[in-house]
Specification:
Elements lengths: L1 H23 L7 E5 L3 H9 L17 H17 L1 E2 L2 H5 L11 E2 L1 H14 L7 E7 L5 E9 L2 E6 L2 E6 L6 E6 L7 E4 L12
Parallel strand pairs: 2-3
Antiparallel strand pairs: 1-9, 4-5, 4-8, 5-6, 6-7, 8-9
Helix pairs in contact: 3-5
């Protein structure tokens, strides 16, 4: 009798451990670790727009419904079509300046505007995460990651398609924290990809 109970408990614990391990290793979501440095451009953006860099309300991960997918496509297409790509040096005479674009902008400006627009449709800010990465040529880049119950999806000004993060050939470095829009967390991207001189 005792052996039977112990066996059932052991099987139950093993099932929980296996379930947890599978969820933790699920490639649909970016593997993240602890806090890391905030990009200087985002820090300066937060000084100008402090309400956009506050702790987020605890919310459930959004369900990837047809409606949300259509909103993501619509926002991605609209921003990519309307905003003309230009560097911060060309626009402002400085190497880096994060801002909401009106007619032109660079990668993080596209991401900020997409974040703003999707938040206004009701997507929680905790699911709309500016993400910094390296392109295959080694150049830095920023995109908007939308966290859903079916994985992390990337809205990118260099690609008209919305892809799951692990379907891209980028090396992901860090992104905004789900808990606090003013904090950043590191991404452990250990996929077997070749990016410039980084790998």
């Amino acid at each position: 009798m005792i052996y039977s109970v112990v066996t059932k408990i052991s099987i139950g614990i093993a099932a929980v451990v296996i379930s947890y391990t599978s969820a933790a290793a699920d490639p649909s979501w970016m593997p993240t670790t602890g806090r890391t440095s905030q990009p200087v451009g985002h820090y300066e953006f937060c000084q100008q727009y402090p309400t956009e860099c506050q702790p987020n309300e605890p919310t459930a991960i959004p369900e990837l419904t047809d409606e949300l997918w259509e909103q993501m496509i619509e926002v991605n297409d609209a921003v990519n079509t309307v905003i003309v790509p230009r560097t911060d040096e060309e626009m402002h005479g400085v190497a880096e300046l994060w801002s909401y674009p009106t007619a032109e902008g660079d990668c993080e400006d596209y991401a900020l505007l997409k974040q703003y627009m999707l938040q206004r449709t009701g997507v929680p800010r905790s699911a709309l995460l500016i993400t910094v990465l390296r392109q295959p040529n080694g150049a830095g880049h920023a995109v908007l990651t939308v966290k859903t119950d079916r994985g992390d999806f990337v809205l990118d000004n260099l690609n008209e398609r919305i892809l799951a993060w692990n379907e891209t050939d980028y090396l992901y470095l860090k992104r905004q924290s789900e808990r606090d829009a003013g904090e950043w967390i590191a991404i452990v991207d250990d996929r077997d990809i070749l990016v410039g001189s980084v790998r």
